[in-house]
């Protein structure tokens, strides 16, 4: 059965409409709308904010605006000129500024995007496809980390990174850690949804180790765990599939770790793993090893144009010393060929250098 010409024309027009809806640049904020937003903020917060340090617009200083916008953007495709840009970038320096931003955006009918560390593949924290001006709330100035070793906990603001959190914990203790992600530049505010790392087999995801949170809801109300209730607290840690508010800070549970841990990376080429037997064995045993041992596999292309191959790098952390690790590997995964060499011995480093051990990124995303 053929397709009628009118139907084809409608489909083509629909396609063009969809295409241009994705590539329409967001209209620039008018000066009056910017002024109205700033005036509204002053009404709903008593804490001053210097405009030259917290407000950034293309009209005021295009180069500075671009620098701030690109500072933590991880997906360069969403920085293209065709992508919608915020009319204002606002960097709150106090929690009340975030509350005021939500209230004022609702009053003025302005869409918000919120960015902690910018580690989202779809650019949702700094791009809006809604065809009207939007504001980017950048939380990078809210980055306090308060570690309480006696309580085995820490309060961490959303603008801090996981690297900063790991460092502050290590300053206070050599036998405490937190099982979050491997990317040290990941924003703490984005830990909702899990955050998996090299200690997850022992302690679970970051979301499993959250004790409390401070969140601002759509009405501008500041809520903690008691005020929000257990359903919302469950949702913001990864149980829900949407945004339920702006996370200001998390109270996290610190977990015990040994003073010394062991790491290793073993890389195999296709020629060294004929038939992918080592890779297949890893798939079988990785989840059945002792929970102190985490092994992940990273695939890469190696070699030049005339002699390319695929490599599999077995990147591991063991919460313990190398002697105990070697016993586990010889018994459960001898195919990898890990040997007790001086190179492995040198990798038995202090906890802060190894707990979040990872290979360098080879690709931008």
UniProtKB/TrEMBL annotation:
Which residue ranges run through the membrane?
7-25
Cofactor (UniProt): FAD
**Where do the FAD-binding PCMH-type domain residues begin and end?**
82-257
Please state where this protein is localized: Secreted, Cell wall
GO molecular function ontology, one term from the record = oxidoreductase activity
Q: Does the keyword Protein biosynthesis apply?
A: no
Q: Which UniProt keywords apply?
A: Cell wall, Disulfide bond, FAD, Flavoprotein, Glycoprotein, Membrane, Nucleotide-binding, Oxidoreductase, Secreted, Signal, Transmembrane, Transmembrane helix
The keyword Transcription appears for this protein: no
User: From what superkingdom does this record's organism come?
Assistant: Eukaryota
Query: What family does the Swiss-Prot or TrEMBL record give for this protein?
Result: Belongs to the oxygen-dependent FAD-linked oxidoreductase family.
PANTHER family in the cross-refs? OS08G0158400 PROTEIN
Q: What is this protein called?
A: FAD-binding PCMH-type domain-containing protein
Species, as recorded? Arabis nemorensis
